[in-house]
Amino acid sequence: MTRQRYYQEAWQKHLEVYQDFSGGLNTTSAQDTMNDRELLEALNVDLDERGSLKRRSGMVSHLPAPLGSGETQGYFRFYKTAYTFEEIIAKDGRLFKNGNQIPIEGLPGGFQTERFIEAVQYYDKMYFATGTKLVQYDGEVAKVVEPYKPQPLEALYVGTNALADNPNDFLSHRTGLTLQITGVTFSSRYGVMNEPFTLTAYHIKKAEDAVEYQFEYRYPFMEDGKYHLGQDWSADNTWTFTAEGEGDMQFRVNARTRGMTVAAAQYLVPTYRIKPAPDPDDIEPEYGGIHTCNRILVHWDRILLYGDTKNFNILYMSHLKNPNYFPMPNNLVFETTKNEPLTAVTRFRDYLVTFTDSSIQALFGKSPSDYRRVVLNTSVGCIAPKSVAVMDNYVVFLSAEGVYLLKSVGYVDDKANVSKVDVTVANLIPRDATACAIVDDDQYQIVFPERKERFRFYKGLGVWARDSSDSLDLHSLVIYDNSLYGQRESGQVVKFSDSVYTDLGEVYPMVVETKYFDFGQPYHRKKLKELQITANTPQEGSVALMKLFTDGSNNVTEVVEKIVKFEPTEKYDTFVAKVKIKGRSLRTKIRIEHTKDEPMQILGAAFVMKLKKP
Question: Over the stretch 329-356, which tens digit does the pLDDT of each residue have?
Fold first, then answer.
């Protein structure tokens, strides 16, 4: 702001100039305490670091909505090469490509329709967490993921596959030319001292043969080092055993054809751990819950799933480089005092940040063997799953108290604090769980589809602006190839474009409203003579609606409303609209409304006035 020295001569005119409106939107402070750079309304405008106000750019249609009713559930791109891709829309429990439904082998009736879904590309395949089954797509066929069948010792030491309908049922008897023991399974991954557990052996044999089994055991730490007979030869391929001590045990299973006197096949279990008491970390989730997960991400070459409707605070992790194998022990339970579900998990730096409605935790490490969890906050969490976005060295999210950011304390990652960032617009921000957000163009942009509003936080300026139009009913936002896309409630995909100034043809209003200016003289009445508004417009004669509010005599607010026309000045591409004013006032404010399909940039405003003698 530029201010001249005030004169007391009645004939002397004064010029009050305002050229910096980079303070953004402020709807919570009293006007007496607001900065002159702040605005009472900044609707559908872009804020410039130099202080000017521009009409925001709009959006165009990118993909039409698939036919049929139902909720929109997501928009994804599957890259076949670095430069070729397919665009996929999820709606009403189905996947669409080029307007045609993609049939899903194993899900002929489609997937659930109540929740949104997520997808990630893992090398040459895309994986969809549909909330009904995990689905993979290779560019040709979409099908339910076939669970990987682990080897017997792999199942014992790594874990059974949570993707299987019955994780423990991965072996079966088979027929063959020679007798073989194909594997041994245990009723639990670890044994507990003085509690029974069961071994089950599986074989390959000729169809006409009958098989007998013998079970032996030993404790490697015992001095004799010999195998002891657990169950002598019988047709029963199961044996229940109770360990009397803790530590590692070994088991040996022999098999023979009935009528033979020596073993023809043998299987060795080199290590089986006996613990002194049940371990809470070994509790396995209810079978089948993983199939209801609708959230997915990739971290350190593993696929992570969450959103289980049965075990709502569990994070499932695949085996390294094997997205078809989710070992049961790899699941992590994020416990909270309120037993809340996981609302969001996001990658931040080289670790994960997990949210519930009222807490934040961090997960460090690259594998289940070295994972370390740290509680970062126990009072603030995230209520909108799609509102979480990483912005430089912060994680921004919508909480029950407004928009917050998570920031590290000092130079360590395992200590963090939260800070409220919507102080100036706190009375406008809804607490809507359907909100979606993204960081684009150095702004944290959060959309509330129910209200068809978008709020943009400028990270460089630390200020807000607000957008509104009938086309802002966006349920998801995503960036592909440096362009921002959104999916509307109908399923239609839109693209934000810098070259248009409408939303799908809708001319939205650009509205700018300043605070009440007192020109540094709050108790002196000023005699206003003229208002000048400077702008950049595409052509001479561009117009806008201007409203001037003044505190007139007897504290009555007077309003001057006029359509102003911008005329050229000596400066290139700069136009000025001048409005003659009559009357005396203590303070005054300006409201400008622009409703044309064209660019508009407000550079500043100037008041010509006289100061009344005291």
Answer: 888 999 888 999 999 999 999 999 999 9
